[in-house]
Write a structure and sequence with these properties.
Chain lengths: 657, 156
């Protein structure tokens, strides 16, 4: 009975979402305050019903209700409870339900924190959120029902895909979705601004903290995903340019551009139209990302079997969102243009270059990701685009960004001071070159590693010099407002990230070897002795577990225990062993017994020594932290904007239009 | 030409130049890294001759996997409905690599052998990549036409 209640809750949520999406818009257009007031209660009601539906699905998983098709497909009696909860978003239907739940979390937060916004504006923003919810709820109800029954009820279910049975997986999708869905807020603000033809740029200031938080979540989600791929897939790589990774990376890049464009628009009023366009793109790419991952359009580890009806719905939904908002943009954008002019040497120019690079990079990734579809449509045969395409173009596009990064904060708005830039250039160059020369002695002349050190130092020195400048020049207490502290933190994160990437890529040592028990291999200065393989079991798997004792110069460092697990239905999953460290990781994965069936004998093993790989994720976490710190700035707290007067003003303006 | 116009002209020219460079590099990189997927029968009919590296897709022939005693070298045969191709690979095979599993190998031809640098097997045991399914269905259809013409079947 309960699963039907879940379905009913979803239908009620859809009706409330319709009310939330349509009535306040009419109210804002007609100046009807009663209709505008529908937005908040409707949003709250929708959230309650969606949460109920989600809760019912979780309940079904916890209580092994295999009469629900989705539960039977993705869990079984042996699956531990924490993975049964993670299984809720382990496949298409449930992950959409999670998406809509998170959309409701954002909407409720927005409804709560927008009390002081002008009424017309707030109701438009909430209405746009409602319309997005309508699209998703309709998608779930009509094509991807998670509560569909399976009769007769099987005694036991299938299993959650073993690759997904990892702590990283319980954590990665919700956080990633927090980011994806968070961009809907920036999108809603932009659409509302376009609808109202806002002449004030105040709305950008209100949108900024939301965008920052969404971007921070997306960063964390990508970092978690990258870490999961590293630990779980057994290849020791941290980024594969897989379609699904690209799907999350595109909105991240556009979101990054958006954060910086919003700063320009808020402070100077320029680039308004561009900011709006970026918000539209960021959200559209988030939608595309959500659908690409789970629709099975592209062949990938993450994709699931697809249903043509879903494809058509997705296409229609994307067309309406992207087409509709771009049409609105074309009609209204000329109205919102304006702002202060700036010279060639100014902070605006640098931010603009950065913006250009981020968006071009996103376009490049988009082209590479969708090219197999294009090739298919043009009958060019079955094509895939290899990682070297991305690996070649992306660093090229990011080079100017890294080079210009130290200068951005130092330049003034409007027009910059050339002499100051020259002295800064001298200082960061000297520091970077000096460190590069020192590093050259340690990395055996690896160019990539030297460049990594130089780039890291280049950005870090820029950040430190700016922090020092503020310390000297600004009065106590106003030296580092949250917005600036966040910026410095995120830029420093970028330095750590770049250094980590280049150092680990160039200095990694990997070898696939055949090892008999008792044999020793030396890798990166460590001696790894293979002590053979034993059988072991877990809650829902049995495994062959290898034991490797690691020594360095004769003293014991650690014991590593990589596994090769077999789950229900003979699904095999490699569980690598990682010995993590600040300056290096040791990574061991079991291959297979050389003599099939004899696990006591020799095995093929994959051994890695990965220096500084943790810096990649560390840098990502610093960027996330920067985004969050930035969002807490006092300036972004909404003061009651001239109260009702402003609202009435807008109303009057609207009715004239 | 007044200074403002001149500056605008320079900016426009620079933007065009940058766009052209970016576009050119993009197309170049794309061309270098486009990998086509062929099945063994397509390779044997010469369709892959124009490509140095490509992806070979099909099923692992049962009983064809042979490992070397001394090194990590593995040889196996990839088959589709109308052809078979011996493959050589040195390294660790993915978890799900086994008899009758659909695989995609990236690499190049060396005489009649395919030397693989990467071998992928799909994560779900029952799942066959859509593109591979399509390619094999196509090869199968072609094969049928050929069979009808030649009135013989090469497959055992």
């Amino acid at each position: 009975m309960t699963p039907e209640l879940g379905q009913l809750a979803l239908i009620l949520a859809l009706l409330l979402a319709l009310a939330q999406g349509v009535l306040p818009l009419i109210g804002a257009w007609r100046g009807n305050r009663a209709l505008m007031a529908v937005a908040r209660p409707a949003a709250a009601g929708q959230a309650v019903f969606v949460a109920m539906a989600f809760g019912i699905l979780v309940w079904a998983f916890l209580h092994f209700d295999f009469s629900v098709q989705y539960v039977a497909d993705n869990s079984n009696l042996a699956l531990p409870w924490y993975y049964r909860i993670a299984a809720v978003w382990g496949a298409h239907e449930g992950s959409l339900l999670l998406w809509i739940l998170i959309l409701n979390v954002w909407t409720v937060a927005l409804a709560a924190f927008s009390q002081k916004l002008p009424e017309v504006f707030a109701s438009r923003v909430l209405a746009v959120m409602g319309l997005v919810a309508v699209g998703f709820l309709a998608f779930i109800i009509f094509t991807s029902d998670p509560f569909g029954r399976l009769l007769p009820m099987p005694g036991d279910g299938a299993d959650l895909n073993p690759v997904l049975q990892d702590p990283g997986m319980t954590f990665h999708p919700p956080v990633l979705y927090m980011g994806y869905v968070g961009f809907s807020v920036a999108f809603a603000f932009s659409i509302a601004a376009l609808l109202g033809g806002e002449l004030e740029q105040a709305w950008v200031r209100w949108a900024r903290p939301w965008t920052n938080v969404a971007w921070a979540f997306l960063t964390l989600g990508i970092v978690a995903g990258s870490w999961w791929a590293y630990a779980e897939l057994g290849w020791g790589g941290w980024w594969f340019w897989d379609p699904v990774e690209n799907a999350s990376f595109m909105p991240w890049l556009v979101g990054l551009a958006l954060i910086h464009a919003q700063a320009v628009t808020e402070k100077r009023g320029s680039l308004r139209a561009w900011t709006i366009l970026l918000s539209i793109f960021a959200f559209s790419l988030s939608l595309l990302g959500t659908f690409l991952v789970r629709s099975g359009v592209l062949t990938s580890v993450h994709a699931f079997a697809s249903d043509p009806r879903r494809g058509i719905f997705i296409l229609a939904f994307l067309t309406i969102v992207v087409g509709g908002s771009l049409l609105l943009y074309a009609l209204r954008a000329p109205k919102v243009a304006g702002g202060k002019s700036f010279q060639l040497l100014s902070r605006e120019t640098l931010l603009l270059i950065g913006n250009l690079m981020f968006t071009v990079a996103a376009a490049m990734v988009l082209l590479g990701t969708l090219f197999p579809l294009i090739g298919d449509a043009l009958n060019m045969g079955r094509i895939s685009v290899g990682p070297p395409y991305f690996g070649f173009l992306f660093p090229l596009l990011m080079l100017p960004v890294v080079l210009l990064m130290p200068f951005g904060p130092f330049l003034r708005w409007g027009h910059g001071d050339a002499a100051a830039m020259k002295s800064l250039l001298l200082r960061v160059s000297v520091a970077a070159v000096a460190c590069a020369i020192i590093a050259a002695f340690f990395v055996h002349g690896q160019i990539k590693a030297i460049v990594g050190v130089a780039a890291g130092v280049w950005i870090t020195v820029g950040v430190l010099l700016y922090a020092y400048k503020r310390w000297r020049e600004a009065p106590r207490g106003r030296r580092y407002p949250a917005e600036m502290a966040g910026m410095l933190l995120a830029h420093f994160g970028m330095a750590v990230f770049v250094a980590g990437v280049l150092l680990s890529e160039s200095l990694s040592v990997s070898s696939d070897v055949r090892m008999a028990p008792g044999q020793t291999q030396n890798i990166g200065g460590y001696d790894l002795r293979f002590d053979g393989v034993q059988r072991t079991t877990g809650p829902n798997w049995r495994a062959d577990q290898g034991v490797i004792s690691v020594t360095r110069n004769g003293s014991q460092v650690t014991m590593m225990r990589p596994q090769k697990r077999t789950y229900a239905g003979d699904r095999v999953q490699t569980e690598s062993a990682v010995d993590a460290g600040f300056t290096r990781d040791l990574y061991v994965a079991l291959g297979e017994p050389m003599d099939a069936g004899n696990i006591q004998g020799a095995w093929s093993l994959r051994l890695y020594y990965k220096p500084f790989i943790r810096w990649i994720w560390g840098g990502g976490l610093l960027m996330m932290l920067g985004g969050l710190v930035c969002a807490t700035d006092r300036r972004f707290r909404i003061k009651r904007v001239a109260g009702a007067a402003y609202g009435n003003d807008l109303l009057a303006q609207e009715s004239r239009a | 030409m007044n200074p403002t116009r001149k500056r605008r002209l320079i900016i426009v020219l620079l933007v065009i130049l940058a766009a052209a460079t970016a576009g050119g590099l993009g197309v170049y990189a794309l061309q270098q890294n486009m990998n086509y997927l062929f099945t063994p029968s397509q390779v044997q009919s010469g369709q892959a001759s124009g490509h140095r590296t490509f992806r070979l897709g099909g099923m692992v022939k049962a009983g064809s996997i042979q490992r070397s005693d001394k090194s990590l070298k593995v040889t196996f045969t990839v088959v589709d409905a109308g052809g078979a191709m011996p493959v050589e690979y040195t390294g660790i095979l993915p978890d799900l690599f086994r008899d009758n599993q659909s695989v995609i190998a990236t690499g190049h031809m060396d005489d009649a052998h395919f030397i693989a640098t990467e071998v992928l097997a799909k994560h779900d045991a029952t799942y066959m990549p859509k593109e591979l399914k399509d390619a094999m269905a196509k090869a199968h259809a072609n094969k049928k036409i050929e069979d009808a013409a030649a009135a013989q079947d090469k497959m055992p």
